[in-house]
Amino acid sequence: MTSKERVLAAVAHREWRHTGDRVPITFDAEGVVYDMLYKHFGHRSKEKLLDTLGCDTWWVLPKNYIMSATEKGKQDKTTIWGWGSTVVKYTGGEYSELAYSPLAATDDLSAIDKHPWPDITAQDYSSFDADAAAHSDKAIIAASSWGTYFLASFLRGMEGVLMDFAINPPYVEKLFGTITERVLAMLDNMLDHHAEHIDIVYMADDYCSQLAPLFSPETFKRYVTPYLKQVVDRAHRKNKKFLLHVCGAVRPLLPMIIDCGVDMLEPIQIRATGMEPAALKRDFGKHLCFYGGLDLQQVLCRGTPQSVADETRRLIDILGNGGGYVFGPGHTYIQIDSPLENILAMYETAKNYTSNF
Q1: Which of 58, 175, 186, 277 gives a 20 to 30 Å CA spacing to 326?
Q2: DSSP, res 16
């Protein structure tokens, strides 16, 4: 199989064990990890690196996805949506952390209308088609924006949104409606003009901690499922699969997520409550293609190459049984505390493992 065929076969839940092939593989990491791998392999080609690791996916994003290119390199940045972030450095790397939520200071509904919302045609797709076409042998994953709740949690502040759920439904309805209108328009713009090479539409929309969802299933059904279903339907109308990113303990929400039509779930954080792989596969494996899974909290960062290899095979045996699995890290980005030898063991094992029977 080509990489594209391998991923799409997994999404379709087609069995792989007796074909002589393997489960599909994905990879992404913090920049420091990329640099470590480039140094190890003696080149700085992302294409060569992903091929060496056995990666079957390729991501394409607009140049101003969430953050405008003009903000690159700044200490204090403003996203295209209007919230502010600041760069916080730590040993070995840096992150941009939320510094300013423009809608946090008032409950006045007029503030939503007055906010400088991004133009729905503002995203820069100038390199999008060529990038996707150049890697058309792989499964192309594309995103136009984050999900409505995720965006609202930055614009309003997470505390503000959670309080609004409890005591200010009119604010939630107006804020979510305003954001969703733009999320859908941006997605339509991407799919109407750049769908040719896209296989999978991706959306990040984190609403869980490691212990539980951040709000009740009833609140999720009322405020999240309406827009989630609309986004998934847009992707399906163009015959694209839909990949939803939700970290943490998402299990209580999975029946509703499945009802919205989501095809794939990332990143499968197996140490979170309710995210034990065998139970997930048993209860939801007929409906979802799982994407990710290798634990970054203990196994990859603190294990040995042998324990990483053993866990890789375990996950493939469980989540890959009967298809429906793309193997990769249990967080979108491998972190800098992951030793080189463990990352190599993870991908060498996955690339060469075909069956446990």
Answers
A1: 186
A2: -
pLDDT at 135: 97
Token pair in block for residue 23: 């489960």
Q: In this structure, what token pair is assigned to residue 4?
A: 């594209």
Q: Tell me the C-alpha distance between 289 and 141, whole Å.
A: 14
Share of residues in the chain with pLDDT > 70 (%): 99
Distance of CA 23 to the CA centre of its chain: 19
Per-residue pLDDT, 357: 40
Res 237 pLDDT > 90: yes
Would you call 267 helix, strand, or coil by DSSP? coil
Burial letters 296-323, b for 16+ CB under 10 A, else e: bbebbbebebeebbebbeebbbbbbbeb
Cα 121 to the chain's mean position, in Å? Answer: 23
Pairing of strands 139-142, 57-60: parallel
Distance, CA of 184 to CA of 202 (rounded, Å)? 13
Q: Is the pLDDT score of 17 beyond 80?
A: no
Burial profile 151-187: b = 16 or more Cβ within 10 angstroms, e = fewer: bbbbbbbbebbeebbeebeebbebbbebbbebbbebb
Tell how many helices (H) and how many strands (E) occur in the chain. Answer: 15, 10
Q: Are strands 264-266 and 289-294 parallel, antiparallel or unpaired?
A: parallel
Give 355's pLDDT tier (boundaries 50, 70, 90): low
- DSSP 3-state of 118: coil
Sign of the dihedral through C-alpha 127, 133, 137, 142: positive
Question: What angle is formed at CA 163 by the lines to CA 159 and CA 164, rounded to 5 degrees?
Answer: 115
Asked if pLDDT for residue 207 goes beyond 50, the answer is: yes
Q: What is the average pLDDT score of the chain?
A: 96
Amino acid letter, residue 12: A
Torsion of CA 271, 301, 299, 143, to 10 degrees: 60
Which residue in this structure is represented by tokens 């729905």? 120
The predicted-structure confidence for 293-340, as pLDDT tens digits, reads as follows 999 999 999 999 999 999 999 999 999 999 999 999 999 999 999 999
Interatomic CA distance for residues 234 and 231, integer angstroms: 5
In whole angstroms, give the CA distance from residue 323 to residue 164. Answer: 41
